[in-house]
Amino acid sequence: MSRFELSAIIAVLPVVLFAIGARSFPSFEKIRFRDSVVASVVGALGGGVVASIGAAWLGAALALFIFDKQELFRSEVFFASPVAEEVAKSAFIAALLFLGKKRSSVAGTIVGAAAGVGFAAVENFLYFVFQTSTFDSWLELVAIRSTLTVGMHALCGAVFGSFLAFAMRQETAARVFFPALGLFVAFLIHFAWNYGVGAGSKIGTGVVFFVMVVVLFRQLWIVSLKHDRRTILEETAAFAESGAIPETYPPRLAAIKPTRGWIDESARAEYRRVAIDAALLKRRSRTASAKGAAKLDALVAEKLDRLAELGKNARE
Questions:
Q1: Which of 216-232 are b and which e, b meaning 16 or more Cβ less than 10 Å from the residue's Cβ?
Q2: Is the pTM of this model over 0.70?
Q3: In the chain, what is the straight-line distance between the N-terminal and C-terminal CA atoms, in Å?
Q4: What is the C-alpha to C-alpha distance for residues 159 and 126, in angstroms, rounded to an integer?
Q5: DSSP at 305
Q6: Contact status, residue 189 vs residue 112, Cβ threshold 8 Å
Q7: With contact defined as beta carbons under 8 Å apart, do 205 and 171 qualify?
Q8: What confidence tier does 49 reach under pLDDT thresholds 50, 70, 90?
Q9: What is the C-alpha separation between 196 and 166, in angstroms, rounded?
Q10: CA–CA distances in Å: residue 97 to residues 101, 121, 296
Q11: Directed axis angle between helix 81-99 and helix 174-199, to 10°?
Q12: Residue 206 — very low, low, confident or very high, per pLDDT cuts 50/70/90?
């Protein structure tokens, strides 16, 4: 097997591993293998191409004001690349969330992280093929970029994705503030990684970032899951008040770990899935335009009709 082929396999491997692992993460929405792979492909092809163009434009703009070659290189590495890459990734993450059917904060975290992993796959492959001359240098680059660089890009994408998913269900200025904050935080993480690798020990920087990725990603997941639970509890409680579902169901539907015994087992899984979808749709409709809200409310009504049918069949 040639180094080119081996580089391609190693670059794609994190995409497959993340897609497999994401299926087991606690979530109120089912995350399929295909969902993660699609997000990774979009992040790789769309984000990678746009980021390359953006970085080239920013580099050309910087060259108009910075004439020292070393300073220009540092500016491109520490500023142009992080800005171009995070803006490009974030644009395609936003497209995935706005056009897709996933509506929870956890789904936003997964989609963002998967897009980041996909972006890293393309970037890593190019580095593996064109930035190494010996087997030892190739092996060192593979070890660093296949773990730490992938983790950095995944974390940056997860931050923006979770912030955007949260903002999409808000009715205030938070709809603008949180995506902007998420993009800024992603840029800071990316800048810190580039600066740490360029100015200090790669091993020392790698250890610090490995710990940071694990801690921050876990915290993002916990916060996103709690926010989804609160949203589902509030919206299903509203459904119960209107008589659409029994009053005892909201806490069961909002439980992170599904419970048994509150409805016939043959209908429980579908009932919970439809109710959660209806709750997330209803929350989204509260922040949509009049036309968009009408469409979303129509979908909610269909979901509630299905819940009534499932509840009736379960009692019979």
A1: ebeebbeebbebbbebb
A2: yes
A3: 62
A4: 25
A5: H
A6: no
A7: no
A8: confident
A9: 30
A10: 8, 21, 15
A11: 140
A12: low
- So what's the pLDDT on residue 210? 77
Nearest residue to 118 (alpha-carbon basis) of 147, 89, 82: 89
Note down the domain range covering 284: 231-315
Whether residues 214 and 268 share a domain: the answer is no
Indicate if 135 and 256 belong to the same structural domain. Answer: no
Q: What is the biggest distance separating any 2 CA atoms in the chain, rounded to whole angstroms?
A: 80
Q: Which pLDDT score, from 0 to 100, does residue 313 have?
A: 63
- The helix/strand/coil state of 229 is helix
pLDDT band at 314 (very low <50, low <70, confident <90, very high): low
Average model confidence (pLDDT) across the chain = 87
Query: Where does 131-246 have alpha helices with state H?
Result: 135-144, 150-167, 174-199, 202-241
DSSP string spanning 174-186? HHHHHHHHHHHHH
Phi, then psi, of 90 in degrees rounded to 5: -65, -35
- The enclosing H or E element of 127 equals helix 105-130
Is the predicted pLDDT of residue 113 greater than 80, yes or no? yes
| Cα–Cα dist 181/189, whole Å | 12
Whether 258 and 196 share a structural domain:
no
Q: How many domains, in total, are found in the chain?
A: 2
Q: What is the dihedral of CA 284, 286, 291, 295, to 10 degrees?
A: 50
